[in-house]
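Pipeline run #58 for the internal structure catalog. This entry was flagged by the ingest filter as a single-chain record with no existing model, so it goes straight to prediction. Upstream metadata was stripped on purpose; only the residue string is passed forward. Reviewer on rotation: M.T. Logging verbosity set to normal.
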Amino acid sequence: MQCIVPGVSHPLHSAAATRVLEAALAASLPPHTLMQRAGLATARLALALAPHAHRFWIACGPGNNGGDGLEAAMHLQQWGKTPLITWLGTPDSVPADARASHSRAVSAGVRFVDAPPEDCDACIDAMLGTGASRAPAGRMAEWIARINTLQVPVLAVDLPSGLNADTGTAAAPCARASHTLSLLTLKPGLYTAQGRDQTGRVWFESLGADLADQAPQACLGGAPELVAREHATHKGSYGDVAIVGGAPGMSGAALLAASAALQHGAGRVYVVLLDGGNLGVAPDQPELMFRTPEAMDPATLTVVAGCGGGGAIAAQLARLLSTAPRLVLDADALNAVARDSQLATLLRARTGRQRETVLTPHPLEAARLLDRTTIEVQQDRPAAARQLAQQFACTVVLKGSGTVIAAPAETPVINPTGNARLATAGTGDVLAGLIGARLARGETAFDAACAAVWLHGQAADAWPAGTPLTAGALAQAVAG
């Protein structure tokens, strides 16, 4: 068993793939072995998380997830604890493995109760796991509501009840766990959409499954490799980045992206403002070089377009899409592509010309590009990211809790870093600048996006508690 912490990449498997793996593994073992392993792992972790707890409420569902809870209760009883089980099943209606675990729990003297106890020292949620097919109702919904009022450790078995294993969407109601023990595989839904809010700390137990030959449906992002700069290099070795944006009243967005690219190690950073002004130097960052759109040659640059671009960015995009060898499209540049089919065609054509492209939409921008609603995008974030990547033949960074990075022919990556401190104006501009800096140094679009997203989130995770995080401060914190 291991605690999953940010920094190490892990494969993520869908509910369907997990069921196939489970069936194959179960067929190779004596009957009931997998549930015995799952129940023992659950009991051990519950005891480790709440070593002084005596009364454990174990909410068990009518399927095999409930069977895992019944098996765990048997062990806790044998270890001198008092497990109290509420069960939605009956011996005649549950699967064979769960029936066997029920018999073992009864033989051990475990007490079954009709309603959640008034008080408990810890709780185990073993109602649904990956078996959720619809929103919880009836007594299950009542028990979930009760779980969500508890002020004690709550351990979810496999998944919090009501959480979708593949998408991370949470049904109403959905259990909120302080810890989740994911069995056999780690699931994508643990890490995106509402997943991170509902699961608490994630633990993993393979139950003896060998995942080496199992193709994952996604991967949990890991920390990028740190590469030291060689002495015999110069500013040209790290590439030139041009930030094109900053329409009237929004020049700050372009300057934030430029600052991030500069701090992250770009050799030179140019700022091409579209506000018609005459800003020639940023007093606090004189390293930034300002150019007019006419004086910029995008064919020699890594271009980050759209940060604060307003309606003015649309006039620049045909040229940028046609000539820039490396291009990051953010914010208003994405909205312009969504409105203009000719720009969309130019975007798709870039891959055939060996041009690197990264799109960085938030859910609303993704919805516009896909001609869908934001709710539809958020209902299945990994699928939306994959669809965008295929539709526009490029790397896509779908921002949000559990940012998804997708590209054609790549296994999607779900990023585990970041927190709600990033929910403030300008942090997306900082991310665009980071990606631009990494593209400029020669990384592929997919690798640059994965690394930048991880570092962007990690900077927020490392930010001192109680100290506000602004985009300007974030840009300074992501030195490369």
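catalog note: The chain has two domains: 2-213, 235-476.
catalog note: The longest strand covers residues 55-60.
status: ready for reviewer M.T.
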